Amino acid sequence: MKRRQSLLLPFLYRIKRAYSSFKLKSGIKLGLIKSIMIIPFKGFGSEKEIYFVARILRDRKIGTSDAKDGRWRNFRKMYKRFMTWEIPNIRVKATFFGNEAIALSDEEGYVEFRIPVPADCHFSNQWQEVHLELLDKVIPKQGEVKAMNRVFLPSEHLEYGIISDIDDTIVPTGATRLWQMIKTTFLGNAHSRIPFPGVSAFYKALEKGRDDIESNPLFYVSSSPWNLYDFLMEFLEVHHIPKGPLMLRDIGLSREQLIAGSHFDHKLAQVEKIFEYYTDIPFILIGDSGQHDPEIYLQVIKDYPGRVKMIYIRDVQSSRHAAMEEIQLKMQNLGVEMLLVTDTLDAARHALAKGWIQKSDVIDIAETKKEDEEIK
C-alpha cells in the first residue's frame, strides 16, 4: 500500500498544482478575484527573535459571526474558509521595530518569518505589532495590501507557560466521532460553540498565576486546519478565553503526504518549538484523552526533562482509561504528574493546592462554572 501511495503521490500532486494554477490564472483573467488579503497568524518570540506565519489569499469577505446566524449562513462562511484561492510566489515584507524581512509565499500561500529583536528595544507590554505589506502585484487595480500582526514577547513576571489543546479540551467537538465533529464545525459558529463550564475563568487564573499579573503566556496547539484560524480566534474572544498564539496545521495533499502531517507529529513539533523559544520557564500542558494528547506530552517530557510542570487531561473517552493509567505511571516515573479530570474545577483546586493560582480565582472559577452550566 505504501509503495502504491509513493508512486501515485507525485502524479496526484502535479494534478493538484496544475489545477490550482489554472484556477488562479482564470480567476484573475475573468475578474473573479477582486481583492487580495494577508491573514496574519499571531506569533511569539524571545529576547532574540520573533516567529510567526501569515497567508496570502483571495479576500472572500467572510466577516465575523452573530449569535443569531442560522445553520445555512454558518455553512456558507465555513465553505468559504475551506474553498480558498491561494496566492503563491508573492513577496511579503514584514517590519518589526525597524527590522525588515521579506518572504516568498509558498504553493499554499503561506509565508513564515523569523525576525531579530533589536537589542535596544524596551517593550511596555507583552503584545507587539508587526506590519506586513504585499510587494508584488497580483491583480489589476490592486492597490496597497497591508496587515498588522501581533506577537507575544515575555515580560520579567513570567512564572510558567501554558500550552493547551482546543477540541474536546476547551470546547466539546466530538473529535473522536467524525460525523458529529463535521456537523459541529460546519453548522455552528463562534457563538453557538460553548466551552466546557469554567474553562475561561480557569485559563484566566493560570494566566495571572500567583502574582495576579496577566503575564503567563498561553499557547493553543491544535490539529485543526489553518482555514479555521479566524473562527477559533473569534471563539476565544467571544467566550473571554485569554488570547495567545494559535498553532494549527495545513491539510490536504502535499509533496510528501496525501494528508499533510499527522496529528501526533504536528502537535509534538509545535510544542517543542515553543519550548525552544522559552528555555527558562516550566510549562503546564493541557489536553484531552481522545486524540493522544497524553502520548504526545509523554514524549515532550522525555525530550525536555525538567521542563514540564504539570499535565491536565480532560477525560472524554472512557475506553482509554487503561492506557491513561499506563501513561500516568510512565510520567510519574519521569517526575511529572498527570491529572485526569472530568470537571474544570478539579484541575483548578489541584493548581491551588500546588500554589500556582490564587484562592480568589478558584472561587471565581466555581461561580463561572455554575453560570456556564445554567446557560447550557
Description:
The protein has 376 residues and is of the alpha/beta class. It folds into two domains: 33-152, Immunoglobulins (Immunoglobulin-like, Sandwich), CATH 2.60.40.10; 161-375, 3-Layer(aba) Sandwich (Rossmann fold). It has helices at 2-29, 71-82, 178-187, 199-208, 229-238, 263-277, 293-303, 321-333, 344-353, 359-375; strands at residues 36-45, 49-58, 91-96, 99-104, 110-116, 127-134, 146-152, 161-164, 218-225, 246-249, 283-288, 308-314, 338-341. The protein has a seven-stranded mixed beta sheet, with no helix packed on it. Strands 10-9-8-11-12-13 form a six-stranded parallel beta sheet, with helices on both faces. InterPro entries: APP1_cat (IPR019236), Mg2+_PAP (IPR052935).
CATH class of the largest domain: Alpha Beta
User: Gap between N and C termini, in Å?
Assistant: 46 Å
The third-level CATH topology of the largest domain is Rossmann fold
Tally of alpha and pi helices? 10
Which class do the helix and strand fractions yield? alpha/beta
Count of distinct structural domains: 2
Name the strands of the widest sheet in spatial order: 4-3-6-7-1-2-5
Order of helices and strands: HEEHEEEEEEHHEHEHEHEHEHH
| Relative helix content | 25-40%
CATH-defined architecture of the largest domain: 3-Layer(aba) Sandwich
Shape: globular
Mean pLDDT across every amino acid position: 89
- Number-wise, the strands total 13
Using only C-alpha atoms, the radius of gyration works out to: 22 Å
Strand residue content: 15-25%
Low-confidence stretches: none
What's the name of the CATH homologous superfamily of the largest domain? HAD superfamily/HAD-like
What's the main sheet like?
7 strands, mixed
